[in-house]
Write a structure and sequence with these properties.
There is one protein chain. By secondary structure, the protein is of the alpha+beta class. It is 26% helix and 23% strand. The chain has a single domain (3-180), classed as Glutaredoxin. The protein has helices at residues 31-34, 50-67, 89-98, 112-116, 154-164; strands spanning 3-5, 19-21, 28-30, 39-45, 71-77, 105-107, 121-122, 124-129, 134-138, 177-180. A 5-stranded mixed sheet has the order 6-5-4-8-9. Strands 1-10-7 form a 3-stranded antiparallel sheet, covered by helices on one side. The two termini are 17 Å apart.
Amino acid sequence: MALVESNMLPLGTTAPSFTLPDTISGQNISFTDVKGEKGTVVIFSCNHCPFVVHLNQEIVAIANDYGKRGMGFVVISSNDVKNYPADSPDKMSIVAKVLKYPFPYLYDETQAVAKAYDAACTPDFYVFNASDTLVYRGRLDGSRPGNDIPVTGADLRSAIDAVILGIDEINPQIPSAGCNIKWIS
């Protein structure tokens, strides 16, 4: 496991479009399909990363809380499944069902979507406003495995609250940190 921080895609970037297979429903899902009335949260994640495992319940709680308030959510795994079979689509589906993901869990086999978002780590969070403009990229909160800081989702919740209120200037924006995306070699 290599600790990596977000690349911090430039604010103001328009959400890169995608259509990827959902490991829960088996359907192809696009950005437009997951877009919320108020905004959209795109999360790059995986099954095996201890940083993701540490935050997963709060990610689900945030989606449950804010999905009712006009925010769309999607989680994408772009990891190389040949070398990391724990992140394969069949295992993604199991994790999503066990954790009761209230959002699609998409598989980015070619890693083109991760590259379009300049994603670097799992988890990596992107918040777009209703116009599909990036207004936040960064961490969920300051908690990491073993640092004894409680998982609250404070940073991401604050960013989403701002989007719902129509505020596009969100500070601070601290990079997320986690396992590197497992790139296909």
